[in-house]
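Lecture notes, unit on protein representations.

Consider one protein chain, 292 amino acids long.
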Amino acid sequence: MENTYAGIPAENATYENSRVVLVTVPYDGTSTWGKGADKGPELFLDASENMELYDIETDSEPYLQGVYKAGEVTEKNSPERMVEEVYKKTKELIKDRNKLFTLIGGEHSVSIGSIRAVGEEYRNLTVLQLDAHTDLRPEFHGSKNNHACAVFEANQKHKLVQVGIRSMDIEEKQYLPYKRVFFAHKIAKNPHWIEDVLDKVSGDVYITIDLDAFDPSIAPSTGTPEPGGLEWYPTLKLLRKVFKKCNVVAFDIVELMDSPNAKPTAFLAAKLYYKMLAYYFKYKGKSDKKKK
């Protein structure tokens, strides 16, 4: 029998008993500098098995709500075929609106297919992107499905909100959703940046987190670490408020890279994922009760 997420009991890991589905995509076909993101899901799962399952902040054990490992997308022949397979997998799972769809990459191109599928199910979608890079190129190295194009399509179809940006090509300026971009250098000088972000995020939300959004002092093992990134507790505060305010329907965490010192970043990714589940159940549970 395949290991369960975080080593949780089998009864908390079946599809029927789970409120969360988890898809992994070990793909690293278009990265252009640091290689090893294809090992990200494996590193994430290993770190998760070595993590305490009681969340102090929310006084909860999120795993009790159930996390089902819904399989791995193994397509590696081309970025186009990988994106299509992620799309199909997401399309199949996102139909059940009683379950939160989650994905662990892999490089950021894996998000293209999942955002596409979620956007077809939730027509008025906000995509909240935490990232060091804009990823708004329409094409890069001959492909529209390159990691540098991760949210170009999302920006065309949905309301894109970008947080933590501190690196981009001048070509991407024409595509920037200027009123919804929160550059890292401005965040550093704005004590109200979280409230400003929240003003732009509403309704059904897909959260995509490239781990290079964080400062490399706490998340060094990513493909392109950039100085001046987000810190741990302010980022959690933002996410907590997003889950409280909005209907988060899906999220992904990408760009965890294998390296000789990958464990700190892997553990950060594992804790981040579990924290997001804790916030989801804390606020989703309350909203569900209000509806009854």
